[in-house]
Design goal:
The chain has 412 residues and is mainly alpha-helical. The chain has 17 helices and six strands. It has a two-stranded parallel sheet. A two-stranded antiparallel sheet has the order 3-6. Strands 4-5 form a two-stranded antiparallel sheet. The two termini are 49 Å apart.
């Protein structure tokens, strides 16, 4: 039966009240089974989900719309999970049938709720799938990146960005505690409290900096996420302090003894005790689709994300490259570009480990250095045991000099 006819058949039954209920159910069940026999290869999955949603809800336990929707999602997942990267990038994220239920993330979300409950906090922020880690302004809900929901999408994220933010359980929970703080801030309107403002500073939706200059050795801020993130903004200072306070097994009084940041932790401790057992005061209605930003193709998502992370490093390193790769062409030497290509992954991992810079950015920097070495015709001795050390020190210096000129981006 063509799609149009099948849709008409569903619509006819939905609008019909003439036939007895059990006959409507039997006929609709037959139609639904015929529908489910379709191979979900259509690019317009909205048609399929529309049919699932069209099933009436008055068939009680005999007929459940959720069964059709569930089977559609499972069939669609089986369809796209086996695609090549090139074909998968053509799919819209919103049409992948992603959900948090039944995934490896579900017990981690429960863990967050258990941690909150252990402190007597009754508000458990709702969690949804979005394009990145974030809590919408004014909305006490956590959005979790779609690529964490499925192993195939994690693999694609790693291919496109070289790493997967929140991939391990420990990393995931650190981010969840941070985002939970933002949700609590909105749910209880904490940022309006005078003592909150005196402790963390004034906050404004219209005055949020895109860049900040951290002071790595400052003891006025806790250290939770990378990049000294608490220093980026008053909201992030609270979120990081809350996350440290919430972390199970962490003796934050001992860890931050003698730090000015301890005063902030003590305030958060008292503030959360005052909220124990109390429901949130701000629970606005919202539509998930208005915030999740998933109605785009994967290729568009990654094009934008790569552009965001593709910060341009300065072009003033020609003199350094000539000093670093000063060997003459000939026996015992190799092209500097070949030398860097052979060690690219090892250099990238080492530099990222000690600078906390994104792998994608360092990889792009190394690619530019390789291309520039080719353009300059530079060579290096192949058996110099100190060369790897000098190159690692040079690239690390480049990255750190760049980072500490105010180029840390506020992203969480």
């Amino acid at each position: 039966m063509p799609f149009a006819e099948l849709a008409l058949a569903f619509g006819t039954h939905i609008g019909s009240t003439q036939a007895p209920l059990h006959l409507q159910y039997k006929s609709l069940l037959s139609l639904s089974n015929r529908f489910l026999s379709f191979k979900l290869s259509s690019t317009n999955l909205a048609e399929h989900y529309w049919l699932a949603a069209c099933a009436p809800r008055n068939f009680g336990h005999e007929f459940e719309t959720s069964r059709i929707t569930r089977e559609l999602i499972e069939m669609e997942a089986a369809d796209w999970a086996s695609l090549s990267d090139q074909d998968l990038l053509e799919r819209r994220i919103s049409q992948l049938g992603l959900r948090l239920e039944g995934t490896t993330l579900e017990p981690l979300i429960r863990q967050l709720n258990d941690e909150l409950s252990a402190h007597g906090l009754v508000f458990h922020p709702p969690c949804h799938i979005g394009d990145e880690w974030f809590v919408p302004i004014g909305i006490p809900a956590i959005f979790i990146p779609f690529f964490l929901v499925h192993d195939r999408l994690r693999s694609l994220e790693r291919t496109m960005m070289l790493e997967v933010e929140g991939e391990t359980a420990e990393w995931f929970m650190k981010l969840m505690r941070h985002e939970a703080a933002h949700a609590y801030s909105y749910a209880y309107q904490l940022q309006r409290k005078k003592q909150w403002q005196q402790t963390f500073g004034q906050t404004s939706d219209d005055d949020t900096p895109n860049f900040y200059r951290p002071r790595p050795f400052s003891r006025s801020y806790v250290v939770h996420l990378d990049d000294w993130y608490a220093q980026s903004h008053a909201d992030e200072d609270f979120a990081e302090t809350f996350a440290v306070w919430l972390t199970p097994g962490l003796d934050w009084r001992k860890r931050y003894a003698g730090w000015k940041a301890l005063q902030k932790l003590e305030y958060v401790d008292e503030l959360m005790k005052s909220l124990a057992g109390k429901p949130p005061v701000h629970t606005p209605k919202y539509r998930i689709a208005e915030y999740n930003c998933l109605n785009v193709k994967l290729k568009t998502y990654y094009a934008l994300k790569r552009k965001l992370y593709e910060d341009t490093y300065p072009d003033f390193y020609d003199a350094d490259l000539r000093a670093l790769f000063a060997a003459q062409a000939g026996p015992g030497g190799i092209k500097a570009s070949s030398y860097l290509r052979q060690r690219k992954r090892r250099l990238m991992n080492s530099v990222c480990q000690w600078t906390n810079e994104k792998k994608f950015r360092v990889n792009k920097l190394l690619t530019r250095l390789i291309d520039r070495c080719d353009q300059l015709g530079l060579h290096v001795l192949n058996d110099d045991p100190q060369q790897d050390f000098r190159v690692s020190a040079f690239i690390t210096t480049l990255v750190m000099n760049y980072l500490f000129t105010g180029k840390f981006k506020r992203t969480k």
